[in-house]
Write a structure and sequence with these properties.
The complex is a heterodimer of chains A (about 200) and B (about 325). With about 200 residues, chain A is α/β, with parallel strands linked by helices. Chain A has helices at about 5-25, 35-40, 70-85, 105, 130-145, 150-155, 160-175, 180-190, 195-200, and strands at about 30-35, 50-60, 65, 90-95, 115-120, 125-130. In chain A, strands 1, 2, 3, 4, 5 and 6 form a 6-stranded mixed β-sheet that branches. Helix content of chain B is about 55%, strand content about 5%. The longest helix of chain B has 25 residues, at about 5-25. Chain B starts with a helix and ends with a helix. Classes of the chains: A alpha/beta (about 200), B mainly alpha (about 325). The interface of A and B includes residues 20, 83 and 84 of A.
C-alpha cells in the first residue's frame, strides 16, 4: 500500500528529494508542478493526492522547456524517496507532458510562467507551482476530456469566474479542435452553471 | 550528529573490534577476548575484514601480523584473491602490504604474487586511525613495506606471542583440515561436506570461493575413493560423506562446528562501517540519514542473504522515513550480537 500526499507529506517528499539530489551532486532541477499536488501546495484545495505532476521544467536561462524525458538522476532519486516514504514508485512524473499530445507540447496557457510560485527546497531543487488561473485551464480541459468527477470538483473549488472559464475553454479548444469537444465543453459549462461562458464559445 | 547514530557508531566499532579479537584469539592470537563460538572461522575472509577494521585497532592488526608470521603458510592466497575480487573488500592495498611483510623464506613466492598485484599509489596516508576516524601519528621511521603501498606507520615490532592454531578447537576446523590435506580444493570440499548434509558442486564452489569446474572435477575423483558418496536427485548430483567417521578421525567427539559463509557478511559489515564513518552522514538531518542507511541496507541485503543472516533484518518498508533509523541500528547490532 502506498501513502497519500498531504501538504505536509508533499513538502517532506520534496525536501528529501532535494537532499538526495545534493548527495548525488546532481545538476540543479527546476520543476513546474501542476495537478492535485500544486492545488494542495498552493492552498487552493484541501485534499490528498498520490503523485506530483511535472508539466514543464525551467532551463538554465529560466525559459520553460519540455520535461520529457526526465533526467535519469531525478528518476533515481525520486525512486529512493518513494521507498523512504512509502509513496508510489512514480510519485513524481511527467505524465501531463510526456508525448506529442502532452500539455507542454501542445502549448501552455499564455503567461503561465509569470504566474508561477517558486519554492526553493535546496541548491539543487526548486519547485514552481502553477497559479490558480492555469489550474482552471488544465482542470477544465481534463474535466471535459476525461469526464472525471475529481477534476470537476477541483474546478468548482477554484471558484472560477465566467471570464476565466471562457479563456480556459478557448485555450482547451486549441488542444482539441473538434466540434465534438466544443459541444462537450459547452455542456459541461452549462452543467456547472456558467451559461455565459458556454454561450460565448 | 544525532545521538542515536553517534552512540551506534561507537557501539558498532566496539562490537566489531570485540568480534575480531574473539576470532583471532580463537586462532591463536595473543589476546584477552575469549569466546565459545561454534562456527568455523574463515581465515581468508577474516584477514580481508581485518585489513580494513584493523586500521582502527593497531594492537589487533599487529597481533594479526604476528599470527600470520607463525601460521601464514595455512592461508590460501588464491582463495584470498578470489574473495577479495568477488566481495569487493576495500583493503586490497593493506593486504598487499601485509603480503609484502610475509615474503620470507619458503613463503616468499606465495605472498609475492599477492604483494605485486597492487599498483603503488602516488601519495602516502597515515595507516592507523583513531575511533573518530582521524589519522594517528606515526612514531619512528615509517615501515618500508607499508610505505611502498602508500601507508605511513611506525616500525613493525611483532611480539612473537602468537601460537600455532589449536587444531581441535571448534572454530579451527578449516585450518585443521588444511594442516592435514594441504592448501587445496579437496580440503575445502571436505570442510563443506562435513558441515552440510549433502551438497551440489556449484553450491560448494560458490560458498567456498572456488571455481566450479575445479570443485566438480575433484568431486568426481573423490567419489572414486569410496569415502565421498553420491546421491542423485533428478538430474542433480549431491555429494556427501559420513560425518561421524570424520569427526572421530579429526579428534572431534563433540558436534562438528557450523559453517558460516563469512565473506559476504564481512563485506556487508565493512560497507556499513564505511557508511557510518562518513563525515557527511553526521551532517544530514535524520530523514536523510535514514534514507542513506535504508539505501545502504537495500544494497547490502543480498550479501546478508548469501551469508544467511537476512532473517535477522527487518523489512524496512514497514518503517517509513526517520522511523527506520532505530530499526537499522538494532538490526546491525543483532548481526554481531
Amino acid at each position: 500500500m502506498t501513502l497519500e500526499l498531504t501538504k505536509e507529506a508533499l513538502e517532506r517528499a520534496f525536501k528529501l528529494l532535494s537532499g538526495r539530489l545534493d548527495l548525488m551532486q546532481a545538476e540543479p532541477v527546476r520543476l513546474v508542478i501542476c495537478g492535485g499536488s500544486a492545488l494542495i501546495a498552493m492552498g487552493l484545495r484541501q485534499r490528498i493526492t498520490n503523485d506530483a505532476d511535472i508539466i514543464a521544467v525551467l532551463d538554465a536561462t529560466g525559459e520553460l522547456a519540455s520535461p520529457d524525458p526526465l533526467p535519469p538522476f531525478l528518476l533515481e532519486a525520486s525512486a529512493l524517496v518513494a521507498r523512504d516514504l512509502g509513496l508510489k514508485e512514480n510519485w513524481l512524473n511527467n505524465e501531463p507532458s510526456r508525448n506529442d499530445g502532452g500539455l507542454f507540447q501542445m502549448g501552455l496557457p499564455a503567461g503561465l510562467a509569470g504566474r508561477l510560485t517558486r519554492q526553493i527546497f535546496g541548491p539543487r531543487m526548486t519547485i514552481y507551482f502553477i497559479g490558480r488561473l492555469d489550474q482552471i485551464h488544465f482542470k477544465l480541459y481534463a474535466a471535459a476530456d476525461q469526464r472525471d468527477d475529481t477534476h470537476i470538483a477541483d474546478l468548482r473549488a477554484l471558484k472560477p469566474t465566467e471570464a476565466e472559464l471562457e479563456a480556459a475553454a478557448r485555450w482547451a479548444m486549441t488542444h482539441d479542435v473538434s466540434e465534438g469537444f466544443r459541444m462537450v465543453l459547452r455542456e459541461l459549462l452549462k452543467q456547472m452553471g456558467y451559461e455565459s461562458a458556454a454561450k460565448n464559445i | 550528529m544525532n545521538q542515536p547514530l553517534k552512540t551506534f557508531k561507537e557501539e558498532y566499532q566496539n562490537l566489531l573490534v570485540n568480534f575480531l579479537w574473539r576470532q583471532w584469539s580463537a586462532l591463536g592470537v595473543a589476546g584477552q577476548a575469549s569466546g565459545k563460538d561454534v562456527w568455523i572461522i574463515d581465515p581468508e575472509a577474516l584477514l580481508l575484514f581485518t585489513c580494513t577494521l584493523g586500521r582502527g585497532e593497531p594492537r589487533l592488526f599487529d597481533e594479526m601480523l604476528d599470527w600470520l608470521r607463525e601460521n601464514g603458510r595455512f592461508l590460501n592466497v588464491m582463495r584470498l584473491k578470489r574473495i577479495l575480487r568477488m566481495e569487493k573488500f576495500a583493503g586490497e592495498r593493506t593486504l598487499a602490504a601485509v603480503a609484502a611483510c610475509l615474503m620470507k623464506g619458503t613463503e616468499t613466492l606465495k605472498w609475492k604474487r599477492l604483494a605485486e598485484s597492487v599498483a603503488q599509489p602516488p601519495a602516502a596516508e597515515n595507516f592507523f586511525i583513531s575511533p573518530d576516524g582521524k589519522p594517528l601519528p606515526v612514531l619512528g621511521e615509517p615501515e618500508p613495506h607499508f610505505l611502498r603501498y602508500g601507508f605511513k606507520r611506525g616500525p613493525l615490532r611483532l611480539r612473537g606471542y602468537s601460537q600455532k592454531f589449536r587444531a581441535t578447537q571448534p572454530t579451527n576446523l578449516a585450518l585443521q583440515l588444511r594442516a592435514l590435506f594441504g592448501i587445496n580444493v579437496r580440503c575445502e570440499i571436505v570442510l563443506y561436506l562435513l558441515t552440510h548434509e549433502a551438497a551440489h558442486p556449484s553450491q560448494i564452489a560458490r560458498e567456498a570461493y572456488y571455481f566450479e569446474r575445479a570443485v566438480q572435477g575433484t568431486l568426481v575423483d573423490m567419489l572414486q575413493s569410496g569415502v565421498v558418496r553420491l546421491r542423485s536427485s533428478g538430474r542433480e548430483k549431491h555429494y556427501w560423506l559420513l560425518q561421524k567417521h570424520w569427526a572421530e578421525l579429526l579428534n572431534r567427539p563433540e558436534q562438528l562446528p557450523q559453517w558460516v559463509t563469512w565473506p559476504p557478511l564481512f563485506s556487508a559489515l565493512e560497507k556499513i562501517w564505511f557508511k557510518v564513518n562518513e563525515p557527511r552522514l553526521e551532517t544530514l538531518d535524520p530523514l536523510l540519514q535514514s534514507s542513506e542507511l535504508r539505501q545502504l541496507m537495500v544494497e547490502v541485503r543480498p550479501a546478508f542473504e548469501r551469508a544467511r543472516f537476512d532473517k535477522i533484518l527487518t523489512d524496512d518498508r514497514n518503517y517509513l522515513g526517520e522511523t527506520y533509523l532505530p530499526v537499522f541500528l538494532a538490526d546491525v547490532s543483532k548481526v554481531l550480537g
